[in-house]
Amino acid sequence: MTAAIEQKMRAAGQHDEATEAFRRAYERLAAGESAVLASAELEPAADVPALKDLPEADGRALRGVAVLKLNGGLATTMGLRQPKSLVEVRQGQSFLDIIIGQVAALRERYDIGLPLLLMDSEATRQHTQKALAQRGIELPAFLQSMVPKLDAQTLEPASWLSQPGLEWCPPGHGDVYGALRRSGMLAKLIEQGCRYLMISNSDNLGATADPRIATYLEERRIPFLLEVVEGTKAERKGGHIARRRSDGRLVLRESAQVPAEDSHSFADFRHWRYFNTNNVWVSLHALDEMLAREGGVLELPLIANHKTLDPRDPGTPEVIQLESAMGAAIGSFPGARVLCVPRTRFAPVKTTDDLLVVRSDVYTLTDDWQLQPVARPPYVELDPRYYKLLDGFDARFPEGPPSLKEAERLVVTGDVTFEHGVVVRGSVEIEAPEPRRVAAGTTLEG
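The structure assignment produced for this chain is given below.
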């Protein structure tokens, strides 16, 4: 690693182990290492157990579990500069409000401690702390690291004097393992008697601690478990799980790891079948031992993302962001497993398309804060020119979303505003060359 990069990270206050992790990643990039996984090297995962087949378990199994939510993301894809976890989901409640309610309900139901903690980023920490203070709540939190963006031509640290903050990026959620150790949180959880940590994205409200999974981990002595779902033709999120032919290890293959000639194979959800939910369960003792052996650095498959320095300005210089995926750690733990879970545990909100479904009557928020589907979630595609940003989205649903519980598909092209009580049934496509309003109480049927 160039001295300039190391100096830049130390000057920014990054931990020595974070600097070492980036040094190793940089050297792997400079040496031409690639995380690309060709289909010929892999075979589909088989004989995957299902959550529905696990026996009922005593809720006391969660006494050795802690819950970690990844809270490093800003809602930039929706045009906001605030933590996505603070976006309103339902009935005036944000993702963070519902997460806190879910954990509180489990504590009360099973009479357990069930610690809840957050991994923030520099971009989300202050906003999140303020929101929690307003609610009179304190949650333990630690920071993920920040790493320099690299000039795509020279591999030197990118420089942008007018906005120095744009010179930095998070190293992907694979950083969570090292950040747990660097922050002292890993040691603290073990001291508190926690044996397993469940990690999931803050925008996936289906990911709650389940005593059946905790019992399964304990009984089988599983060091690492990744929840997966069966793929569908509408699959738009995450990578798939496969088994590496060379050593039989399970691996996670993300879209960024697919060679161009394999793009058709990657999209074959029937062949690869199992897709990543980013719901991870990890043995804290196994993680601690592995990190101690490796000097605090868990080397995961390297993902080199090519972007512009300012992601909102295609005219800015091209940079490389070195990242890793949390689920890729499945290839690092001998004895790692996958567990097929229902779609109710995988309802991430990445776009306003997803947000419309979660806000609609397809879901209900129960008394114990569970986000439960009452119908099969439909496919939704809204014209990004008008709906991509949250303010434009909200303006076009001024009295809330339409009823979607009888819908299979909703595609909107053009500028369409939905008034109160609109019902969508079946498959509906709307094309509006000019701005249009759907009158209150209208039923749209395809």
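Interim note for the steering committee: The mean pLDDT is 93. The CA atoms of residues 8 and 228 lie 38 Å apart.
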